[in-house]
Design the sequence.
């Protein structure tokens, strides 16, 4: 096959309109996490609020309470991120494997892309968290120490900022959640992602010609790590174990490039049924593992729908949401906790029994993150739009 034919074939393949859905999915997942945290931080809660005085809730408040209860599974939205990330990152190499029969990774481009994608918004979020936490502790200290009468009581945020603490977070060397940067606990998932990005090139280097061999190595390493973590809870083992979930996404991109997800849709509907039992009957990693398989089914179903029934027209704001979803994810937690500190100081340590603070808080972080995107993300993404020959246009 000639180089010209290869380029043409890849261009046709990567024009699939379903690929545009990936940004929308990422945006929706980020919004879900934001809503989950807003419900947790900016409302008094079900067991620590509503159960104690249900008479204070009118019909509309009760309606919103049950409506927003759909956002109590924020952790699973992060698992969705992991799978989606694996799909997007490996998509370029899946194309290489199809037409060049070898998985070649341009390390310079890859690491430049990862660094410019991750660090500018991340550094800004660290500085923002430092500023908000330093000021917030002076406004209402108990919320930062966990000394409140709500589910927030188990936060116990580490706000003892110093250079060593900063460097640990900057280079993702935290050993556990107690070393996460202040009121920004979402960094735990970013730490996982970063090390996924570091492990991925090693997998390609070890098995340049066989994705099956790569998958076998990942499975064995993750299995060993999962077992080891049960006896010795260590961040390294946790990262290696969760890398398997990320690899599910990479596997899905292989299926998409080589077979077409529309040919696998019958399987995707079956794995969708694994989601509910994973949430109800399993705990921790095993629930995440099964849910990740379900995510593959969701993505497959979406691709199938776009393949044969391109009838879904998503509002334009969802596309915009996808663009600044990373910044949104990084800054929302610190802002919510700061807002809660202001409110609790003015209301003798109480959070509201209505949802107006939650709605206002979510609206503010959406607007603020959209504005921050043009400072922390867009300029750097524009500099890395150099396209490699015979590569898909979509990249994370």
Sequence:
């Amino acid at each position: 096959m000639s180089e010209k034919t290869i380029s043409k074939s890849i261009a046709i393949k990567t024009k699939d309109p379903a690929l545009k859905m990936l940004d929308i999915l990422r945006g929706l997942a980020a919004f879900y996490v934001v809503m989950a945290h807003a419900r947790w931080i900016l409302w008094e809660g079900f067991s620590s609020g509503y159960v104690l005085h249900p008479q204070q809730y009118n019909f509309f408040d009760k309606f919103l309470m049950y409506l927003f209860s759909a956002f109590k599974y924020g952790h699973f939205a992060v698992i969705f991120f992991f799978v989606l990330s694996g799909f997007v990152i490996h998509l370029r190499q899946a194309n290489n494997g199809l037409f060049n029969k070898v998985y070649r990774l341009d390390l310079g481009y890859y690491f430049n892309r990862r660094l410019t994608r991750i660090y500018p918004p991340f550094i800004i979020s660290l500085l923002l968290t430092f500023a908000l936490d330093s000021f917030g502790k002076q406004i209402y200290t108990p919320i930062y120490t966990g000394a409140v009468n709500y589910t927030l009581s188990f936060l116990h945020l580490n706000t003892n900022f110093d250079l060593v603490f900063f460097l640990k977070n900057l280079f993702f060397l935290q050993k556990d959640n107690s070393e996460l940067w202040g009121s920004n606990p979402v960094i735990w998932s970013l730490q996982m992602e970063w090390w996924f990005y570091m492990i991925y090139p090693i997998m390609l280097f070890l098995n340049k010609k066989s994705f099956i061999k790569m998958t076998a190595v990942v499975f064995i390493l993750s299995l060993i790590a999962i077992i080891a973590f049960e006896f010795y809870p260590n961040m390294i083992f946790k990262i290696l174990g969760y890398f398997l979930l990320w690899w599910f996404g990479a596997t899905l991109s292989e299926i998409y490039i080589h077979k077409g997800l529309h040919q696998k849709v019958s399987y995707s509907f079956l794995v969708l049924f694994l989601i509910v039992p994973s949430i109800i009957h399993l705990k921790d990693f095993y629930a995440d593992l099964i849910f990740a398989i379900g995510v593959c089914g969701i993505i497959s179903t979406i691709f199938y729908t776009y393949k044969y029934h391109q009838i879904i027209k998503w509002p334009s704001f969802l596309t915009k949401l996808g663009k600044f979803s990373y910044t949104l994810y990084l800054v929302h937690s610190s802002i919510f906790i700061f807002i809660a500190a202001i409110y609790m100081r003015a209301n003798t340590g109480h959070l509201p029994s209505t949802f107006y603070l939650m709605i206002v808080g979510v609206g503010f972080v959406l607007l603020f993150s959209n504005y921050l995107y043009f400072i922390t993300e867009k300029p750097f993404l524009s500099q890395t739009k150099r396209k490699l020959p015979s590569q898909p246009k979509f990249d994370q």
Observations:
- The chain has one domain: 3-203+242-383.
- DSSP finds 18 helices and no strands in the chain.
- The chain has a mean pLDDT of 85.
- Residues 3-203+242-383 form one domain.
